[in-house]
Design goal:
Blueprint: H1 3-23, E1 31-32, H2 38-50, H3 56-61, H4 63-66, E2 79-85, E3 90-96, E4 104-108, H5 119-131, E5 136-141, H6 152-167, E6 175-180, H7 182-196, E7 204-208, H8 220-223, E8 268-273, H9 279-291, E9 296-301, H10 316-332, H11 355-371, E10 386-388
Parallel strand pairs: 1-9, 2-10, 4-5, 4-6, 6-7, 7-8, 8-9
Antiparallel strand pairs: 2-3, 3-5
């Protein structure tokens, strides 16, 4: 352990007991993995190393997300990728060539409400489709701030949902809304809006590290401030300087769903990393929704950082988070229903890997995702597919 790592560990040892004590009330009924994997720890440390360079400010403020430079995306063989133009934004519709299941995932990407669609979310779309045995996926490249403050993103999300219902004829119970970070908060806000407007609700919701409170009132914004490798140790970032709020009340439930009512919501899967400043955003919503009678499965992944699921198959925690998402989708869609009444799935690490084997791949992943120049090498992107405009 080098001097930098020792410094970090001392900091965590000092902070974590206080934070854990404060969270006991929220964590009742929530199970989490007790130990972070070696590769998961290595990844987190590498993210921390990146954030201690000159890249810290452009990453935290979202400069890299505003103008991503990426290669043209190649979706896998066996899929059709279609661009759908709405009145205000572009939507990306991914469908299997040889399957019509009637199932669909509406994906709302992250990016602090300032970053557009990226290739990683196109890879997410393929993963969602495979996990749900051939479901279609509609990803909404919604308008972002500062040019388009609240409620622009919500309006575009509503338009995407209506398109699925009215133009494509999907049954609402066969729609699952999924989102990460800002997209996770947007997913919850969308369902609140649908409920208020009397529009049929989806069959389920998946959130990954959702941003549910733009007032940043949760205790983890202080408790995890010094250990969050992405948004910690600085308030000069997209969380504290949220241009999407505009002139709106930050406690508006369509902006901060934490302050809304979850009564009548469909089943939810909520995943979050233990080291995130946004941890409270998940825990408080989970607790509030459960008190309202909503079926919620909440998983806190020990030692993990914001949207660690971007690691896909590279780290055990990400693999298992996606496996959990797949199980949830199969339950919602009735592919493998298991009404056991459990609100939380215990997460286990089944496949530890060697640090040396993954080190170079991890470096490439982190450099690429943060710089926006990531080359597509994953097997999910091998081959060409039909693209329609």
């Amino acid at each position: 352990m080098n001097s930098r790592q020792k410094k970090r560990q001392k900091k965590r040892d000092r902070i974590r007991p206080q934070a854990v004590e404060k969270r006991e009330e929220n964590k009742k009924g929530v199970e989490k993995r007790e130990e972070v994997s070696a590769i998961g720890r290595l990844t987190r440390e590498m993210v921390s190393d990146v954030m201690e360079t000159a890249l810290k400010k452009p990453i935290q403020t979202g400069e890299f997300r505003k103008r991503p430079v990426e290669p043209a995306w190649r979706c896998p063989a066996g899929y059709v990728y279609k661009l759908v133009e709405s009145d205000t934004c572009t939507m990306e519709y991914l469908t299997p060539e040889d399957a019509v299941t009637g199932r669909v995932i509406l994906q709302l990407h992250g990016g602090g409400y300032i970053g557009p669609m990226k290739n990683i979310y196109r890879r997410f779309a393929v993963r969602y489709s495979k996990l749900s045995y051939g479901a279609d996926v509609l990803s909404v490249d919604y308008r972002v701030a500062p040019e388009h403050p609240f409620p622009a993103a919500l309006e575009d999300a509503v338009a995407g949902y209506r398109w699925l219902l009215e133009e494509k004829g999907y049954e609402p119970e066969k729609i699952v809304i999924a989102g990460d970070s800002a997209g996770g908060g947007l997913a919850l806000s969308l369902v609140m809006y649908l409920k208020d407007q009397g529009i049929p609700l989806p069959g389920g919701i998946i959130t990954m590290s959702p941003w549910t409170d733009v007032t940043l009132s949760g205790e983890s914004y202080e408790g995890n401030y010094e250990i969050d490798p992405l948004f910690g140790n600085s308030k000069e970032n997209m969380l504290y300087q949220c241009s999407y709020i505009g002139e709106a009340d930050p406690k508006n439930p369509y902006l901060s769903p934490l302050f809304g009512s979850f009564t009548g919501f469909p089943p939810m899967l909520m995943q979050v990393g233990e080291y995130e400043v946004l941890l409270s955003d998940t825990m408080q919503v989970s607790q509030k929704a459960k008190k309202s009678g909503v079926k919620v499965r909440t998983s806190v992944y020990a030692g993990m950082f914001h949207v660690f699921q971007m690691g896909l198959d590279l780290i055990p925690e990400s693999r298992e988070a996606w496996e959990e998402a797949g199980e949830f989708l199969r339950i919602v869609y009735g592919i493998q229903r298991n009404d056991d009444g459990k609100s939380v799935k215990k997460v286990k690490n089944r496949r530890p890997e060697a640090e040396v084997r993954a080190k170079e791949l991890l470096k490439a992943m982190i450099r690429g995702e943060f710089s926006g120049n990531r080359r597509e090498k994953d097997s999910e992107n091998d081959g060409d597919c039909g693209r329609q405009n």
